[in-house]
Fold each of these.
Amino acid sequence: MDVIVAGGHGKIGIRLLERLAARGDRARGLIRNPDHAADLEAVGAEAVVVDLESEDPTPHLLDADAIVFAAGAGPGSGPERKRTVDYAGCVKLLEGAEALGIPRFVVVSSMGADEPEGGPEAMRPYLRAKAEADAAVQASGLAWTIVRPGHLTDDPPHGRVVVAERLGYGGTVTRDDVADVLVAVLDSPTTEGLVFEVLQGDVPVASAVAGLSGS
Ligand SMILES: NC(=O)c1ccc[n+]([C@@H]2O[C@H](COP(=O)([O-])OP(=O)(O)OC[C@H]3O[C@@H](n4cnc5c(N)ncnc54)[C@H](OP(=O)(O)O)[C@@H]3O)[C@@H](O)[C@H]2O)c1
């Protein structure tokens, strides 16, 4: 598989690239800071420098089988960058995928994106951006999957998660486990058209994702 990961130097993005490269996939990460390229190369991935806010990523997407959007403006940014990265950056990639006929599009969204106005006030611009990006993805003709993790941690992987369209409670999940979920999603065409939340749980990742899809 030839996979492009937006947010390639992000904490989830680089974990995902490392997993894909290790099993022999072509793993390309989109980064905006050229100084990050060596970190991607160290995990066996290719670095593609493109700023999703000021550039069109489309020419960099050629030949990909799948795109994973794992970029984000981050917690230190204001509402404007939530719009330009979490929403508009995702839509730019979506439009690029549509233009080039790249079939598969996977998004790292967030728990709470199903109901932005129900979140804490400070989180609402972020959740609105995620919700609008998710809606654009769902309205596309692509084979999309939207993954909505809870609060992310850098703890060692548990290997076990709980997934559901809506869990009804909050919690944490490690970035390593989310990266494993993303690999399982890329491997599971039956997750196409699904939106689901993920938290730490007691089901091995591959079984949890297979259970979701009913395969
Ligand atoms: N934090 C949480 O608890 C939580 C919960 C649920 C979902 N999420 C979402 O999960 C996703 C991945 O999280 P994470 O912790 O792995 O994120 P992260 O480490 O903050 O990585 C985000 C990446 O996006 C990149 N980026 C920002 N602006 C960009 C631009 N204009 N062009 C290209 N790339 C740009 C950043 O690049 P630079 O390194 O150059 O800044 C960074 O590498 C994010 O969408 C996040 O919102 C987070």
Amino acid sequence: MHIRPADDRDAPGMSGVLLDIIALTGRMRPHDEAFVRSHYITNPDSIWCSIALDDDGMLGFQSLVRATPGNRYGVPQGWGIIGTHIRPRAHRRGVGTALFAASHHAAVQAGLSSIDASIGADNPMGLRYYEAMGFRTYREGDGIVQKMLTLPAQAR
Ligand SMILES: CC(C)(COP(=O)(O)OP(=O)(O)OC[C@H]1O[C@@H](n2cnc3c(N)ncnc32)[C@H](O)[C@@H]1OP(=O)(O)O)[C@@H](O)C(=O)NCCC(=O)NCCS
């Protein structure tokens, strides 16, 4: 497995990852290449977005963006917001864990105090994954569970 920062050539592959997850979960969400570019690759609030690849192509990606005023889930400013998207054929092979090592490093480098993960309450794999990465629930309601990871003060 190889991990590197996402760039413009990755938009079709990232869009394909989102489509495969939609096929697995049945939960529709934005997924086209224009969305992937604006939301992940060229987002001005992006701190870090990395992709994981193997010889057969893209395995998944993880994004870390800065929480801005008025963000969708009311995440405090100064925090990061993380999102993880792994192709179903690659689930449970450590891809999410490897991507998180890169995102955690980027979060510390950026001086973030905490990272938020906002997860559907009906998404047990997402909830278990973020728990395994050290996140803990700080707020829930309206079908969303918000987990946070506090970064060590000495790292800021
Ligand atoms: C959730 C997701 C990101 C996990 O990625 P992954 O690459 O499969 O995760 P890893 O293989 O690194 O798993 C790390 C740990 O997380 C936990 N975990 C991950 N998937 C799990 C599952 N389906 N059930 C239970 N625990 C799970 C386990 O503790 C696992 O360690 P283990 O395999 O040694 O027991 C991936 O399943 C995914 O992209 N799902 C669809 C989109 C999504 O739900 N995104 C996150 C919420 S927005």
